[in-house]
Write a structure and sequence with these properties.
With 327 residues, this protein is mostly helical. Helix content is 75%, strand content 2%. The chain has one domain: Rhodopsin 7-helix transmembrane proteins (Rhopdopsin 7-helix transmembrane proteins, Up-down Bundle), CATH 1.20.1070. Pfam families: 7tm_1.
């Protein structure tokens, strides 16, 4: 029993001085800011969704799932990194290192696959309006269940011996052991990179390219007939999801590029600081989605409600003036 306790409390990082104390302090403060903003923003999205049932329809269930996965990723990733960078090493033991690597990997994959599902559903709505299917709550629930199970398979595999989790970069956070040069590791990392990044990316790019083409054709057709496009809501929702995807790629693409380079070029040497930069950039991804959600969805609805209220008040004042003017 005592040996087990010692094993859990043993620090993972054998070299806690890869950065000067000021460097770790900057990383700790940066992770603290990311944690605060992400927890506040994603919690606000979840609260608004549950308090306002008008927003709780099939497509917004995907937004809700995205906010939950982003929130959990922050609590398991950035929050822990705040503490470990403060101390300059991952001091929580090997088991907690594996736990952090698993959770950040899992919830990050869920976010990416949820964005993929959003793009696919939006593609069906815009490009196949006469299709036999209908976007329903049950359909969204089944899609999300498939996403979470698919990501669980890839995230849990290293815990069962197919590759592994370990410290990364400046040794204050944990992730997949990309630097392992074993057949077992390669047999996992290469299909993982394909199925968990390249394939979702391809689906997203395909869907949104066809969405833009279809919307352009539709607008041209409506305008040629002297009418006005009625697909403003679809365009706004498409812009919202596209902005989410763009911010996600901004955060995760450098990490994906560095990872595949490490796989394809075994002799490639990347300094710990340089290797940490994409990883810490990736940890900022959970703060963007709720901001985009509020800017493109909640604020327009709030603005419309304010305009409606002003019109009602103006109409009331007009009626009052008419009544007083009549003898």
């Amino acid at each position: 029993m005592s040996l087990k306790i010692i094993f859990k409390t043993e620090a993972i990082s054998p070299v806690p001085t890869l950065l000067p104390p000021s460097g770790y302090a900057i990383l700790s403060f940066w992770m603290f800011l990311i944690t605060v903003f992400s927890v506040f923003n994603n919690s606000l999205v979840i609260l608004v969704m549950f308090r306002n049932r008008l927003l709780f329809f099939s497509m917004n269930m995907l937004i809700l799932s995205l906010a939950i996965s982003d929130l959990l990723m922050t609590l398991c990733g950035s929050a822990i990194a705040t503490v470990t960078n403060y101390y300059g090493q991952f001091f929580m033991g090997r088991e907690l290192c594996m736990f952090q690597g698993f959770t950040v990997n899992y919830f990050g994959l869920v976010s990416l696959c949820t964005l993929t599902l959003l793009a696919y559903e939006r593609y069906n709505i815009v490009c196949k309006p006469m299709g036999t299917f209908k976007v329903t709550t049950w359909r969204s629930t089944k899609g999300l269940l498939l996403v979470w199970l698919h990501c669980l398979f890839w995230a849990a595999a290293p815990l069962l011996g197919w590759s592994s989790y370990g410290p990364e970069g400046v040794q204050t956070s944990c992730s997949l052991a990309w630097e392992e040069r074993t057949t077992v590791s390669y047999s996992y990392l290469i299909p993982y990179w394909f199925f968990c990044f390249l394939l979702p990316t391809g689906i997203i790019v395909y869907c949104y390219c066809h969405i833009l083409i279809s919307m352009k054709k539709l607008n041209l057709s409506v305008e040629s007939q002297g009418g006005r496009s009625r697909h403003l809501e679809n365009r706004r929702a498409t812009c919202m999801v596209a902005a989410m995807i763009g911010s996600f790629f901004f955060c995760w693409l450098p990490y994906a590029i560095v990872s595949i380079l490490v796989i394809l070029i075994p002799d490639l040497h990347i300094s710990p600081l340089l290797a940490s930069m994409p990883a810490y950039l990736a940890k900022t991804s959970p703060i963007y989605n709720p901001i985009i959600f509020f800017l493109t969805y909640v604020l327009p609805e709030f603005y419309a409600a304010v305009l409606m209220l002003n019109r009602v008040l103006a109409l009331g004042r007009y009626d009052q003036q008419v009544k007083t003017a009549v003898p």
